[in-house]
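Exam review. A common question shows you a sequence with its structure tokens and asks you to describe the fold in words. Practice with the pair below. Do the first one on your own.
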Amino acid sequence: MNTIFTARKIVTMNPANPEAQAVAVRDGRILCAGTLEECQAWGEATVDDRFANHVLIPGFVEAHGHTMDSASELAPYVGYFPYPLSDGTSTTAIRSYEELIARLKEEDAGLPPGDPLVANGFDPIYFPDLPRLSKRELDQVSTTRPIFVRHASGHLATVNTALLDAEGITKDSRTPGVGKDPDGELNGELQEAPAMMLAKAAFGKMFASTLGPKPIQIHAAMCRNAGVTTSTELVGALLIQPDQIPVWQATVNDAAFPARMVLYNMPAMPGTTADYDAIAEAAVKLREIETDKLRAPGIKLVADGSIQGWTAVVMEPGYFTGEDHGLLLFSPEDLAAAVKAFHARKLNVHCHCNGNGTVEIFIDAIEAALRADAWLDHRHVVQHSQMTTAAQYRRMGRMGICANIFTNHIWYWGDQHYEQTMGPERTRGMWACRTALENNVPLSFHTDSGVTPIGHLVTMWCAVNRLTPSGRVLGEYEKLTPYEALHAATIGGAFQLHMDHEIGSIEAGKFADFAVLEESPLDVDPMGIRDIRLWGTVVGGVPFEAAHG
């Protein structure tokens, strides 16, 4: 029997049928969106009016998420902003070095001897008046237990002397990214994966925490709480650890799992090379596991680091303040070879490019691939796309390259980019959503969940208002309308995942995936978008109520 959901308002994101009062569902797919009478014309149905006072919109699509966001509750979280957890509660904000040290001492007291202390989410950039976090502060926690504090970006970590000694990391290390003071002594900062992996025990503990069903389930619960019905694992490891394939299949395909998951798997750990042709063949074969709820359509490449860590690759005139630690994790030749191999096998490539220097290299690689193989519907994606220039967007528009813009940075790090990393002029032009659209670049937003909390009401709010915590408006010209922002957070993300024929709008034939809100983001004051309350989601016609703490 069909089910008809009624609502106070249904925003469909289908221009031919923009609003509805009811939506009919059969076998997890939409039969009709329209009036109640139009839906009833499809045959006998049960009318479900639980959303009669709510607003339905297409389920949000998170096209750059990570199950690593589960670390916010599986490990000590020491971030500057509170982080929402799967049960509806939030972590406590850490706003000083003293609070950090106290939190780590509390954790140290409960760990077995010798077990490394691994914490997550701290960022020294929020404390510009203090010396940058170093081994000296962490040595106040313990001089015997190895301590590893992963920065919010995920691209850096700070460790203590005990860890450096235990792992044999010295000032003579030839691995790029091992931080040193001006006098050449180790300062405890490890920049990017090759350097962080020198902390073998701590990095191994952190990586092990991402395995098994629990992190996937926590991530999905966070999705449910945020109205996200399709999310991604954008550092998928199924090509590196194929033993995890059955775990993903059993977890995601469970009827009680409240989201669809799309994996973009890495060919190798960042900073290392691989046989890309062989990896591409394995990635094609991996698509055999796909179901309605689990997909593996492409590849994730990580080409540089973090702007707030000064490890992103930035073109002239470089960083505004601080020392440029820009690390290109692919040579231009190696990146071109990787893109060519995956493009030739019709595998969608999403590439992490924070700095505009890396964006240029990725665009060049796609252009070379297109000259060899004219796959006109590739939809390759510049991920983060924070510093992409207008000239680069013009090239991207001509080649069909997409942009998934990290708009949350406007709130979480906008002031820091203005004052420390990029300076006023360039920061006003960062996250250039309007420029992307004007150059016909398909657009979506993301949270990089784990770096910032999953939830597109916030990414939309940032794109529409471009406001920082200090009250700055960063780039009036680049603001979007609420409708444009909702498009990017729904059908825009679906398009970049090659799934816009299945998700992203409420229209006949697509999966019955909805976010259930108290108000429409198109009707409230733009400043109120991020404050809209969510009831939960509907995935394949099945309601999943959010946890509200």
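Now try the second one, then compare your answer with the model answer below.
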Amino acid sequence: MRRLTALLALVAAIPLLCRAQEAEPIFERTYLSTDKDVYVAGDRIWCSAFCFDAAGKGLSRSSAIAYAELVSVGGEVIRTAKIGLEGGRGSGYIDLPEGMPTGNYRLFAYTAVNRNEADYDFLLNSKVISVLNALNSSKVRNKVSLVSDALYRQRKEAVSPDRECGELDVRVTGAPEQGGIFRVELENAGSSPVSLSVSVYREDSIAAPEDKSICSVRIPEGNRAKYSGLYSPETEGEIIRATLSGRDRERIISDEAGATAFISASSAKGDTYTSLIGRDGSIVFKTNNIYGQRELVTEVADLEDRNLQAVVDISTPFVRVDADVPVLDLCAAIADDVLERGRGMQSFRMEYRDSLAEFTGRKEEFPYRESGALTYDLDDYTRFPTVREVLVEITPEVRVRGRNGKQRIQVLTKDNDLEGAITTSWETSLVLLDGVPVFRHSDMMDYDAMLIKEIQIWRERFVFGNRIFSGIVNFKSVKGNMAFMDFGSNVRIIDFQGICYPMDYTRRHAPEGGVDRRGTIFWKPDLELSAGQGVSLECLAPDHGGFFRIEVEGVTAEGEPVHKVTKFAID
């Protein structure tokens, strides 16, 4: 088995080595369109990512993930985000802390391959946003310049008009009223398909720090002579890098058979990935993107059986850039109406934030499919106290075997089931609890069966990285959170920041109770329009009047920018 494992690893590595030698440098430039430029503390920044191919000038199809950072004046990284990309486009969000100080912050994005460029400017195409913390006026007075609505409008007239580009018609139909429905009409007047982000929001009385849009994006090609190639393009998903540490680190990495590291996130779909551990202790997991804030379980296989100790340490993928952020002038007087509206918006966000967004779907691929599983719902059977008894009494496809004082859970695969005869082979099956591997099978057999809702069994052989498993059995707990499982000292469970779930912010119904004080009232990050196509978007006005703005940013199929702004008022 060890020879077969090593051979599989070598065969899998050959295409990667060939591609590494033949691959041309990839130069990408990323721009984030946001729903607005001014926010309140505790608000959510909605982001739409445009990743450009610097050589072809159109959207890039190389990277499947972009990284975003929000940095303060003092260089502190306030928030980070991972945005899934498909064909150069993706969407996500950044939740601002509720106690965040008022001031300016810089937001920028990049891909893994940008780290190959020795002279890459990570602040290229970044943007500055302003944050107002109206619940703490002392921070407001020391950080930002606020003015009345009237003075704000005068300033806007004095500033150069919004820079627009592209052939797109944008208009409002109907007479928007507080709490009422109105429509935003878009029509692609150009001869090429466009990919757009659409935002409808209130213009706050804070002087905007920059007048920047996708029209000003710069896409320099990059210097091939300073391209290292150390960071592989993340074409399928995030490449999670890690290192091995612990008492028996050197002994494990010197093993000629090659030790295997696993990472997994608790999931009914099985977010499980493997990697051989390099001779320097490095570990590289190639994923299909793990979504959401998750608990990530890391482990090296079979250490308990060999009485070895080591853990897997995950490395951060973020650059932690020291950004240049402008500080606004101080202001002696703060308009009461600005602070009052800010307080209302913050209170509304805190109460209703989780109920306003809608999922738009996501691209995922899994190592095995639920449709191929044999499933046992334990509520349909007599309940037994331990998993060991359940396997003996309910699941004939799975058996418990003992050898040399060790116990194993083994799936009887289809090719070993010859006319009902049971073979005596000692093959390793993959045992999972809520999609997370459990290599010490005795822990699973003694697990409280009353916590298990369902058992899924796959009776085929599966290859995970360089490991071959004779079938899979997945125990799905009632709550799906691996409750009360002791994984042992070699297992590390960490909070993991996954890919943002792509969502629209297109609420069409007012929340029950309270006053609707939304600043952003509509956000769609991934609208596609073919040449000549139009669309009508339904919007719900908030329970306050003021001056509002429709802002559309996008790119044509040829990589030409599109930016249109339309303003309207709600009485």
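Model answer, second protein: The mean pLDDT is 81. The two ends are 75 Å apart (CA to CA). Full marks require stating both points clearly.
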